[in-house]
Structure prediction request, 189 residues.
Amino acid sequence: MASRQGLDEEAVVQAAIEIADQQGIEQLSLAALAAKLNIKTPSLYNHIKGLPNLRKQLSKRGLILAKEAMIEAVLGKAEDEALLAAGMAYVAFARKQPGLYEAITALPDYEDAELQEAGASIVSFLLRLLAPYGLSEEDALHVVRGFRSMVHGFASLERQNGFRMELDRDESLRRLLQTYLRGLSVGRS
Prediction:
């Protein structure tokens, strides 16, 4: 296999995302990536620093894109409507980009500063959505943790074919989020 002209780091990352989204993050290997790009495996090192670094890039990209999806979903919305939209967008991202979502949930290095920053950015975004609720910082962080647990749990169960009933999954998710949001509203009364 000859080196492909015009191949750059972004093309390699995009090919890796495609493999992850279609086959799962665990199926992403340098050999599979090289085969997809029709190049020899050692040629990948002209564009990436190895598989661990590539997985880190996918994790970071996933965090950024998940946040962007939530931001886009909440534009023009506030309070319960914004949090509902953010939760729906989170699960929609997991459906649309399952490999990138797996990369988020299987972070290669929890101590990596770039990944911590990208993750903290999502937490900050959610805390801003919670500001109108007048929660203490600690309470707001517990709410964010609960919110993430719900949407991640839903996305994970769905990904593992855990919802086999013929019932609208979006409606189930909506009802789950609305129930959680009602609990937040009780504290505001």
In short: The chain has a mean pLDDT of 92.
